[in-house]
Amino acid sequence: MRSWTRLSAAAALLASVAVTAQAQTGPTEMSFFITSANPGRGGDLGGLAGADAHCQSLAQAAGAGGRTWRAYLSTQGANAVNARDRIGSGPWRNARGEVIARSVADLHGETNNLTRQTALTERGTPVTGRGEQPNNHDILTGSKEDGTAFEFTPDRTCRSWTDGEADGTAMVGHHDRQGLRDDASSKSWNTSHPTRGCTMEAFRSTGGAGLFYCFAVN
């Protein structure tokens, strides 16, 4: 009986060590993900603050809440914010520990490692892309290719992420780097085309689900 008790205690200790090791090498390394879901109001994300809070909440649920998370989104109008200026300096890793980009310049250059295979959600799962059902490759950014904001008009940010109606638009990129044509915009992860509105239905009509990129700034 004592031998069995000692074996049980040893097994429990090994299991505890394994869980601890997994926690240390798992989501704590993650510093980039695509949101697994939209907050539920289309392009009305509650502004940048609401989008950041959504990133933080998803990261927390995935076990990576110890970092400060920001949404890769630009705004328009007075005091417009550039997405590239709010995500830290890198490097950034996905949920599998794969490096997406080593710096802001690398992220917006031709050598970044953001692809259909590496642009994962906070859960470490792929996001369906072109040729799959549903096609969710449209990722909200509201940004130009270099990660900066658009001018005042036309709207490219669902009115700075406060509008979930049909009359707004948002710039999206393709996380799978594929589109209708074999050109630069179709392959762009952050500036491919505007949406047909800011409702969830409008996002779905061009191949999206109102998802966006999240980056850890520390």
Could you outline the blueprint of secondary structure elements for this entry?
Blueprint: H1 2-25, E1 32-34, H2 47-62, E2 69-71, E3 92-93, E4 99-101, H3 104-107, E5 138-140, H4 158-161, E6 171-174, E7 193-194, H5 200-205, E8 208-216
Parallel strand pairs: 5-8
Antiparallel strand pairs: 1-8, 2-8, 3-4, 5-6, 6-7
Q: What can you tell me about this protein's structure?
A:
- The chain is α+β, with helices and mostly antiparallel strands and 218 residues long.
- It has five helices and eight strands; from the N terminus they run H-E-H-E-E-E-H-E-H-E-E-H-E.
- The chain has helices spanning 2-25, 47-62, 104-107, 158-161, 200-205, and strands spanning 32-34, 69-71, 92-93, 99-101, 138-140, 171-174, 193-194, 208-216.
- The strands form two sheets. Strands 1, 2, 5, 6, 7 and 8 form a six-stranded mixed sheet that branches.
- The longest helix has 24 residues, at 2-25.
- It is globular.
- The N and C termini lie far apart (51 Å).
